[in-house]
Amino acid sequence: MNTSKPFWLAGRLLAAAVVLTALAACQTRPEVRSQSAPNLDIARYATYGFMDKPSTDNAGYTTLTTRYLEEAVAREMASRGYTRSENPDLLINFNVATKDKIESRGPSVGVGYGGWGGWRHGYGWGVGVGSRDNIQNYTEGALTVDVVDRARNELVWSGTATARLTKKAQDKPQPAIEQAVDLIFAKYPKPEAQTAQLH
């Protein structure tokens, strides 16, 4: 019996499964959107501070999430030349939201090796395709950083990072928060390149 075709087919399917797994893993990287106020002149601001009661402190005390966010944002603002002040030009607020979602990954493909028809008939590769969808429940999280003109009490810039919340990120949130803040501020406007549209 010529078994070269089943081996070839199994190899192709196995390679496809590996690629799909890698793509699924990449989906945990946050998707980032930002929005600037019309005619924003970011160069006019030199100092910043944080809201006394950010949205991440609804419980009435400073949470670890707020502390991690303030530390990460402070680094980003300092790298852009801002100075933290008690009487700042800009006030920064945070919002964190979660949403339960359902995902369908489509038909499943299985590849296996084993015997068939009794041990005398030999062994070989087998391929199975299931028509039943693979349904998964997961939680999506969104972090928003709002930058407000304190004197005018107007939002001048906002950045949001959205991603699937993995168990690792929920158990140890600080690295995930730092990554999200870094990606959000990658879209922060520069004095020489203003933008007034949603990216």
What does this structure look like?
This protein has 199 residues and is α/β, with parallel strands linked by helices. It has a domain at 30-110 and 132-185: Double Stranded RNA Binding Domain, CATH 3.30.160.670. Helix content is 29%, strand content 35%. The protein is built from four helices and eight strands, in the order αββαββββββαα. It has helices at 4-26, 64-79, 167-171, 173-185; strands at residues 31-36, 47-50, 83-84, 90-104, 108-115, 123-130, 135-149, 154-164. The strands form two sheets. Strands 1-8-7-4-2-3 form a six-stranded mixed beta sheet, with helices on one face. Strand 2, helix 2 (64-79) and strand 3 form a beta-alpha-beta unit. Helix 2 (64-79) packs parallel to helix 4. The longest helix has 23 residues, at 4-26. It is globular. The termini are far apart.
SSE series = HEEHEEEEEEHH
| CATH fold-level name of the domain at 30-110 and 132-185 | Double Stranded RNA Binding Domain
End-to-end CA span: 59 Å
For the sheet with most strands, the description reads: 6 strands, mixed
Strand order of the largest sheet: 1-8-7-4-2-3
Mean pLDDT: 76
- The residue ranges in which pLDDT falls below 50 over 5 or more consecutive positions are 12-27, 115-121, 193-199
Number of discrete helical segments: 4
> What is the alpha-carbon Rg in Å?
25 Å
SSE blueprint and pairings:
Blueprint lengths: L3 H23 L4 E6 L10 E4 L13 H16 L3 E2 L5 E15 L3 E8 L7 E8 L4 E15 L4 E11 L2 H5 L1 H13 L14
Parallel strand pairs: 2-3, 2-4
Antiparallel strand pairs: 1-8, 4-7, 5-6, 7-8
Helix pairs in contact: 2-4
